[in-house]
Amino acid sequence: MIYLIEKVAWLERLDRKITATMARYGIPFSRLGMGIVFVWFGALKLIPGLSPAEELVRNSIYFIDPDIFLPVLAVWEILIGLGMISGRFLRLTILLLFLQMGGTFSPLVLLPSAVWTQFPFGLTLEGQYIIKNLVIIGSALVIGSTVRGGRLEPEPDIK
Questions:
Q1: Among 20, 35, 67, 154, which residue is least crowded by beta carbons within 10 Å?
Q2: Alpha-carbon dihedral angle through residues 55, 57, 58, 63, given to the nearest 10 degrees
Q3: pTM to 2 decimals?
């Protein structure tokens, strides 16, 4: 019986350490990871033919010359990435991200044949690429909750 109690106490201490570590590093790691993705994907769009999303963007945003729009979008994404990596200007960075997300989701409506194999559940690879942005939006919301000094608390006081 004492052995079982000691075993549980050891697991409790381990759980507290792991949770505290996740609270300490979760948001910085999310910012860094998201920043790398945005810089990388943005940089790919600067080189014609290199981004797998180029054709989708060209076909979705048909009301603006894609030869002008793609480099603007690329720089926009790189700025989002640099803002996330640096942690500076996070309010502006998150605003740019949310504005960019509007365009990212536009193929769901503007180019359904490229997104759906069978509406509403069957997604093409491009559709999956778009829907995964829900995770980015969620991460941006969590990151945004810290711009006024908020932080994750692994064991908040219960009131």
A1: 67
A2: 160
A3: 0.90
